[in-house]
Amino acid sequence: MKRIPLILIFVLFFSCSVFSQEGNAPQFFVKSISVGIGVTGGDETSGGIGFNADVTTALNKNLFTLALATGSELDLFDAHRNFFSADLLYGREFLVTRIFAIEAHAGVGIFSENYKNGDTNFREISESTLGIPVRLKFLFYVSPKFALGLNPNVNFNSIETIYSGNLIFQYNFGGK
After folding, report:
1. Staple 105 to which of 67, 91, 118, 175, CB 3.0 to 4.6 Å?
2. How far apart are the first and last CA of the chain?
């Protein structure tokens, strides 16, 4: 019986010391997911359609994003050019108003492109390289967890610099 009060005191002391540090501990959580569709083009393409998706985590005010993007030039006479990129990005969010925010991201990733045209005798060529993606998100919050926005992107790489603009739909797990 004498052990029960000691155990209770130990448990209370332990729980107080653990919870007292909760405010100072780094907050790491999955912040949001987003998907987008839009137009894409590059130095050597005439333009086409692009898709992107990302998952963003947050650690305090820092954003860490895994982003995937793909796009394809409109096919004309069996010539085509398409790309795929997988990127890791670091970013920050700036709340302009209660319902409008801007997220800025930059990072590094893998860029891959497949193409065939008259210059390659319609033989498909595949190339991959390191890319440096830069992206912005202009978000309008229609609710605390859902935002619509515009997402301009650029991917600098040694094969072909790719530009895209997307309409995005973002779901926030932790609110904004």
Report:
1. 91
2. 50
Instruction: Write the CA distances from 48 to 83, 97, 131, integer angstroms.
Output: 11, 34, 20
pLDDT tens, 71-87? 988 766 666 788 999 99
Which of 46, 71, 67 lies closest to 57, judged by CA? Answer: 67
- DSSP for the chain reads --HHHHHHHHHHHHHHHHHHTTTTS--EEEEEEEEEEEEEEESS---EEEEEEEEEEEETTEEEEEEEEEEEEPPBTTBEEEEEEEEEEEEEEEESSSSEEEEEEEEEEEEEEEEE-GGGTT--EEEEEEEEEEEEEEEEESSSSEEEEEEEEEEEESS--EEEEEEEEEEESS--
22 confidence band (pLDDT: 50, 70, 90)? low
